[in-house]
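Subject: mismatched residue count in predicted assembly?

I count 231 residues in my input, but I want to confirm that the predicted structure covers every chain. Input:
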Amino acid sequence: AQSVSQHNHHVILSEAASLELGCNYSYGGTVNLFWYVQYPGQHLQLLLKYFSGDPLVKGIKGFEAEFIKSKFSFNLRKPSVQWSDTAEYFCAVNPELSGTYKYIFGTGTRLKVLA
Amino acid sequence: GAGVSQSPSNKVTEKGKDVELRCDPISGHTALYWYRQSLGQGLEFLIYFQGNSAPDKSGLPSDRFSAERTGGSVSTLTIQRTQQEDSAVYLCASSRRTSGSNNEQFFGPGTRLTVL
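Triage response: the counts match. Full output below for your records.
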């Protein structure tokens, strides 16, 4: 069965530290990839997405993610985090199969940024 | 513009009671999804609607769960004879398409269900 793994469940960083959140998936075919963020008290919103082309994708608020097909990974990065980045981050995979519409979500990573 | 809306935002019920959760998708979005988010868990897929096609109910955890979508728009998720393990945040999402580019899902704020 297809699955998405986010190995870091809780991450605590100081402001200005660099961030990398891991995301690995198990599916050998073409995929669409997403990172969603859920700020405290708010609903899930899209951070960035990858469909095709340049494997380095830039999203909102200075976030970026790199798709490495050979490693089945789509890690999220930010060079310098801010206190306002405190949130829960979810990686999601949509296998590009005919008739396939499901997103498979990881269990999420809770990021806390200390001021 | 209007996003996905859900009601109620919070629901507290007693074990054994039935509950109905409502989702209004973004206008023009043909696909609608229900997920369940439990503490420490990811988003668990429940059910999917696409236009007038038969829904995919493969994620529903038991026959106490059901959902319908009237007129291709508003959807209602019903949980009968609620159990304490049903306590979770129930999320609704909609998308313009179901695969390929532009199949980004837009999420509602969720309904937090607490079963006492």
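The radius of gyration of chain A is 14 Å. Marking this ticket as 'not a bug'.
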